[in-house]
Design a protein that fits this description.
Six copies of one chain form a homohexamer. Chain A has about 240 residues and is an alpha/beta fold. Chain A has a seven-stranded mixed sheet, sandwiched between helices. In chain A, helix 4 crosses helix 5 and helix 6 packs antiparallel against helix 8. The longest helix of chain A is centred in the N-terminal third of the chain and has 16 residues. Chain A is about 40% helix and about 20% strand. The mean pLDDT of chain A is about 95. Chains A and B meet through strand 1, strand 7, helix 8 and strand 8 of A and strand 1, strand 7, helix 8 and strand 8 of B.
């Protein structure tokens, strides 16, 4: 079996500038190869993700890093520029994300799992869910026109696979190298992980897509689960 | 998104002669349209499914009914001829199903949910799971050669959708009429439902695929869940 | 077995003017027939539920629609007049709902499922849960007197039965026609569904209560689950 | 809310002679008070439940004990006389239990939880479920006539409430004393618990129905969960 | 098996002044006996927990009560002085709790279950989780220095054990008397329970630790579950 | 926190000769270092685990391999010599395992997860659970004396971590090398994996304990879950 994304428009809504690299960039690349339009919406500036030796104007640095990474992927980039640690499904943020959804007009949204380890990721899940619902409600006005129908919604895996039960897996065997290159664009974060004496971010990403692959009979995979709510799951 | 079954070999292993009609015939038809090879393995004779006015030699009658239905579908038919109410994952039954799996060499097996309402369906789930695992173990000998790898395994929906949490949905909007025609081949069972004053089998089937469709944004769907065990889930 | 609501006071707290029709009106009607006092508290004005051809002063239109529907049911109506898409368990809203609970003094509250598809429904779930807890806390002052004990709390089904595991079912076979008539009071919404080319709201409601009925051996049913928390579940 | 059992026929199918006392005797008593017919089917002889000083002919002793206890309850008693530790959903046992179900013709069956701590209890769950399904299948012949429809099925709580998520609670505040008296009929088992230096069986029973009561706002309760499968859940 | 807390620093973050007594004081005492440093952070003033005859300046009274109780335990006490019923994971509250975490530098945080019965407890769960995550993020500044790593996080049992599935149990058989003495310090609350005609708070606490003990083969226990998220679970 | 196994007697009951290496050998080694007595009970001969070039008398070869591996671990070895693919919780097998449990007298049993990917592993789970329950029932006679109390029971992780939700993790950072050496004793199986062109068994084992370590803040870990049933969970 193979999922074909041709004709789709896939929008990943992630909390921080390097989250797509870890959790869904391979699937976005595959969708693009199938002929889909793809985009990444980064909600936070990433300005609090400081390595041991603080970087001045980190937000600007990370803006460049994410632009470079998303360019490698060939996706459109949306930035919401919310503050790190300040994400919440409150009116002002919800409205901004609705506008992004209406600009890109996705058929599929990829969002953080509501059970993720990071409070910002969980808030991003709530925002992505709400925005991709209200995008098609005429009563919620933003600059762009209302969508006719809500996009499908997939929850993404959690970091280190802790506490996430996959519903299905996308084969990304051909895109591991791309994910690695994208991750290397985030120099500020690679330093940070080294400084904290954790396994490197890159190693963690590689291990995760290989374990998900081993669980699903391929060299590398990303895991997802459909949001099983009315109008948010699309048969295939 | 659309799942493409081209190149696949899909084997539905069901307990009784009319179970495929209700739970997976649409998906089999879609797979065939994609170019997949398809087959149905019926485990029981159906000889205890008597309508109010008992039918003589019911097993033979049902053999004809299922042959007619599966012919409409264009699938290969395997019959294990176990007794109704006697299914169990015991060596003699497991061996017979292993041989069926080895003859058809599926890449994907569709099986009843382990939580189904019917004891035979749950036993069929256990048999299908075990047979589609041991089919690739050289130590378990049957007439046909050992498979190189285990097929993927999807659990099918339950009747009336009670107690089944879908992982994903197959769009079968184009195959509802086929399902209806297949079901009509099972004249012995249609009588039975009328006699018992239940909603008719046909109505139940139509309602189920329409509700599953409504839950997944299409006219009609069948629901499944991947068996999330090592070597039984295949990334797509 | 039959649940008897005599002596009860049942309050449904719903997000939008037509939500009770879909998810709990049959159970309210049954409770009333048993001798219970019943009420519906509608949290939002419904002012953003615009059909294709926008209706001027939609909030006022929907106020009339819901009044008519609740009159058919014979229930007391409370309106909180919050904005659509603006529901949240924040102090000002929580306080208003506490006051409603204290005015009606329910023994049982029916609330949206915390896992519902709609952000407003999930917020309504949180508000209903909190308000029906704090209603009996002397420290939380509103105009009406504090209740002696918290009412029981049941979570209602989700639309199209997506993602809701029932704990039990109420037989509403005698009240399907009433639900249909109540729904027809919401003319503004019936238009909306047609315009969006979805299955009609009425058809969806009928299908849902019939499937729930089929799952529970009756002609029509509504599904619920007890809130399994201290002081929120009542033995029967 | 109050569940009314009038018109019902309630059959508890338990593994050992004293299991009903612990898990469902209060609910049976309540059903009887409502006008229901009640019965207990004990599957095993209890011959292996030896206290420290072995009792000769323990099976006969326990036969008397259970007869006395069930007499207090005012229920009909069925005994299957299977060996302790030998319960399994195999044809010979299933057939015997089907016959019991057909003799009593229940509208509701109470069975051990499939996740119970004791292998015999789990086997009893499987037997009760299968027998109360096949009782209405004309193809499965036993001495008594086939039932027209399957009874509803409730899973009972587990001992010490470990690992059981209640779906609902029956108020048994008026029947705690009866449960205590019934338990005292099982003198052979009361000794056994003392000998093993565990908290006494009586204390354990009392504590369990009081905690379940505290969780559900009454003095004492028994907890259950509906078997959420087609034709096994009955709306009320 | 025995868990050894020597070298640990255990911080319980609870909503109200008497919550630790009920849910985790025994485990704190055991950790202290092992050589761990222990602390309790009480988020709310408890000023709305009025008994029938209101107590003037209840917040001050409860401040003394909790100081006395925590003194018996031999723990350090932190008070956040938020209002009862006003807890929320909002920036101002989150920041205050981060500062507490940074002052105590725990290796293990005990927090209310996210599924607790009380809205304040659920908000406390969210606050505890977020604060014990962001405590080690350099970008989130408070007075005290950033922690090098996040502490492990355990969710505590719910009151009356409703709706909580334990992951493991701490043996507190030696500390039941201490819990009772601590609880008796909360005179304002003991009155309140009597007034409401509920089972007394003390009885409830004793019953809960004894049932948890019975479920885990000891005289008394407290139940917990690890937060299964990245960096929040620590192998032992 | 650290779990101390001193005074314990830990018995791992596994299906095949190399299963302990993958799932629990590190924890056994840690227990032994704490002063616990440890043992491994291998249920099957492993005679069907043939590599591409079949090995004559494979059962004898694997007997030597497992003896060598268990010698490295310093554990006592029990062999039940059941046939591969023939495990079932049937009287003859259950009795044999009860006798093993009674000989070793464990305080803790480690068993395969009931949801494991392999039918033999699931049958081993059922056997281990039943045997470690009935070991203390005087009515179930085997050669060795009855145990006074049932041991605690932990379910082990699944291969490749598919479908297993950990309850807690044991830190085995010091025992990875031992696990590797033990695995290398199983030369017949290492060949087999290479032949099937799967990732090597060793690589799979290393990856699994490192990912479990990463999820739990240590270099390497093994994951478990308590069997949450009466008398099978022990507080620590």
């Amino acid at each position: 079996m193979r999922v074909d994304f041709s004709g789709d428009r896939v929008l990943a809504i992630v909390a921080h500038p390097d989250d797509a690299e870890l959790l869904c960039a391979g699937t976005l690349a595959r969708a693009k190869a199938d002929g889909a339009a793809i985009a990444v919406c980064v909600l936070c500036k990433g300005e609090k993700g400081q390595p041991a030796r603080p970087i001045r104007n980190l937000a600007a640095v990370r803006r460049k890093e994410m632009a470079a990474a998303v360019r490698l992927l060939g996706a459109k980039l949306f930035r919401c520029e919310f503050g790190d640690g300040e994400l919440a499904d409150i009116p002002i943020q919800r409205k901004k994300v609705i506008e992004v959804v209406r600009q890109f007009r996705p058929t599929l949204v990829l969002a953080h799992s509501p059970d993720d380890y990071h409070a910002d990721h969980r808030a991003a899940a709530a925002l992505a869910e709400a925005a991709s619902w209200f995008c098609s409600s005429a009563g919620h006005k933003t600059r762009s026109p209302v969508l006719e129908t809500q996009p499908a919604l997939w929850w993404m895996d959690c970091v280190n696979m802790s506490g996430f039960e996959p519903g299905f897996f996308a084969d990304i065997s051909d895109y591991v190298e791309l994910k690695r290159e994208m991750l290397r664009c985030h120099a500020s974060q690679l330093q940070r992980f080294v400084a904290n004496d954790m396994s490197s971010l890159e190693e963690m990403m590689l291990r995760q897509c290989r374990v998900r692959g081993a669980q699903a009979g391929v060299a590398a995979a990303e895991a997802f689960r459909s949001h099983l709510a009315w109008k948010r799951t699309r048969a295939w």
